[in-house]
Structures are given as C-alpha cells and as structure tokens.
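Shift notes (night). Ran Indoleacetamide hydrolase while the centrifuge was going.
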Amino acid sequence: MSLFEQGNCLRDGRLTSVALVEAYIRRIEARDTVYRAFYAVDREGALAAARRADADFAEGGDSGHLQGIPVGIKDLIDVEGLPTTANAPGRKTAVAQTDAEVVKRLRAAGAIIIGKLATYEWGTVGPDDRGAFPPARNPWSLDHITGGSSSGSAVAVAGGLLRTTLGTDTGGSLRGPAFYCGVVGLKPTLGLVPNSGVLAMSASMDHIGPMSATVAEAALTLDVIADLPAERSASRLIGQSIAGKRIGYARNWFARDPQTMSAVLTAMDAAISTLSQLGAVIEEIELPDYPAVEVAAAAILHKESFDYHAPELRDHPEAFGRRAFLSIAAGVAVTDGELTAARNAGSRFRSEVDRLLDRHDAIVTVGALTTALLAAPFEKEAVWTPMRTIGFNVSGHPVLALPIGFHDGLPIGMQVIGRHHAEATIIQLGDAFERATDHAVQRPPQPT
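Came back to this:
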C-alpha cells in the first residue's frame, strides 16, 4: 500500500500504527540481511511512537498524512538517542543529543522514525567494503552498485522496506541512488529544507530531500520537512493535466556522449514522447557544457569539505577510512583563486539555466549515462560514475529524479529541473508521467 492508503486504513480503523510498524520490522528482518540498508532499527522507539499515534487517532487527533507512518533517516542526519555514524570509523558511538530540524518536523507530523540508513562514508566515495558498515546492495541486482551516498535510503524504498525516507544530495547523492535503484528522489531548492543537525559536506551545495516509492509520496514528505503551507505545498498540483506545459529537452548533455548507453538514450527519447502525448510542448534546448560545470562544482565541493574537516584530518586521521580521507584531503590543493573562479563559473551556469527556465516551465535531461555499474571494481578503488547531477547543486534549482525504464533488469532514470521554489511544477510533470507509465509499480525480485 502507498502511504496514502496506509493512512486511510489507520484513520478508519482497519489498521493500527503498531501493527504497521511491526509488519515493517518483520519485513526488514526478513530482507535486510541481504540488502543491508539499515545501520540501526529503533524497534522500541518506533513502537512507542506508534502507540502514541494510535492513541492520538483514538482521541480524534490527526497531525496529517504521515501520522503513524514509518520513515527512515540517512545516517548523516541526527536522530536523538541514535548514533550519527556517517559510516566513519571515528563516529560509531557518536550518539545524537537532539533531533535534526527535519526529524523534528517529521515527528510533529506524526511520522514514526524507524531507523538509520546506510551512506557512503561522510557522503564521499563508495561503495567501500572497508567502511564501518558493509555497503548496501541494489535490490534489482546484488552484484551492481546502489549509487551514493544516500544508498540505504534508496535501497529501503526499492526493496520494499519503507515507502519514504530522507537522503542528502551534494553532488547527486540523492538522485544517483534514485536512478540506479528505480525510486523517486527529490532535491529541493537550495535552502528550502533546513540543514541544522545534518553533517555537512559542502555548505553551499548540501541539500536534504525525500526518496520515495512514488512522486506523490516524495511530494508529501517534502511538504512536511519544508514545513510548506497548503497554498505553497509541493503536492498541490498532483493529478492535474500537464497540457500546455513547456519543457526544454536538454538532449545535448548526453546524446552524443560515447559513454551513454544506447538503452538510456532510447528510454529518454521515449519519456519525452510520453510527456508530449500528455500535452506538454517539447523544445530541444542546449544546456551549457557539462564537463565545465562539473569541474567547477567539484572544486567547490572539495574545498568546502576540506575546510570543514581539516582539524579532524590533522588531529585524528584514524577517524576516517582511507578513501574518504583521500577524497576530502584533495581539497587542500584548491587555491582561493581557483575557488573564486569555480564559484563564478557556477553563477554563470545558474544564470544560463534561469534564462532557459524563463522560456520553459521545466528542463528534462538524463540522470546517469548508464545503468548501475558492477560493484566488484569498487572493491579495489573508487570508480567514477557518469552522471549529470552536480551542476544543479551549484545552481540550487529543484530537481526531481524518477524511473523511466529498465535495461537488462536495471533501472534508468531522468531528471526534471524547475525554477527556484517551483517544486510543485516539476512534481506535477513527474506525477503525470508516472501515472501514464508502469515504471513506479515495478518491483525487484525477492531476496533469497
């Protein structure tokens, strides 16, 4: 059942939150020894919260659609009483003293925090078998990567362990796992969702957002964590026609790239055709050169991450795994002049995207150039994965990632980019596409 269907059952008495939480815990116990999405399941805390939700329902109290619904939290986000490990050797016992603001908002909406979900160490490179925890595994194929760093958040949804979760995104860390695991990821406008209580990676590029089974469930989760009123809600245009919506199709970002799988190109063109059949007006556009913005964004990310971690890198290098240490330490080579040039390049990119969005309601482009790569090569060293994501962390535009097809049993995804604070429009487009296709109802094979 969707979380909307679960909510209806909770409200009319066909289901209790306690029974729902117990069912999810049984599902997690049955499957997560294979998937490894969870670092911690707070069984007692979740059941206590479920009892409170049931009592509130019985007394006529209703905090909204998430009341009594289990939600999982990426392990870069503080949950009071649970460790925020960041999958780092030095943080295994770093118990959070308070909830992050997004977790407070979920609790205020009645959501049940059921546990902490896997991440690449400090949101950097992975998967890494030498991390504090073993890497999460892709439910569609255990031999392929999940993408990162919000790996557990995507796996929990794809594997049927939860309907909605929270992830973070600094260079594609939420959208990459969404593409590779066939779920919905929603990176909101920069600053829309507060990041207090969330471990930083790159302060000017960090985003917190939902990863969910459907567009509507992601939109509802965003409404809660962004504390949006009804008149500005991300979900207010769900179910509405997209006829007449103007979409710029940025095919130049991938169509001629030799790394692009033919199946990805075919799926993207088919997705655009579907949007056209739904009444959207499609125009092929040219986004600025991707490699240039990727280089600029990487410089910002490395420099800001290094500055944040420098004292700990110097004083306690043993607190980091080798790959994370090397990734973060690379920022020492970025000079102040190079950082300024990178930020200027990012500003130019943002302006160019804004200019295109003046003429279009949204931009559509590919998410990743390939399906999920085999995991085995990552056991030896970090492997670059070709995505088209990090530019929108610099520009701060909201982006919806959603599945558009499969190749050899592995998901393919696209991005829908909107104007700043126009989450409702990209959700309207994504929801219409999702309803017109069957990608969101596909399920991976049962783990054995």
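The first strand starts at residue 38 and ends at 41. DSSP finds 13 helices and eleven strands in the chain.
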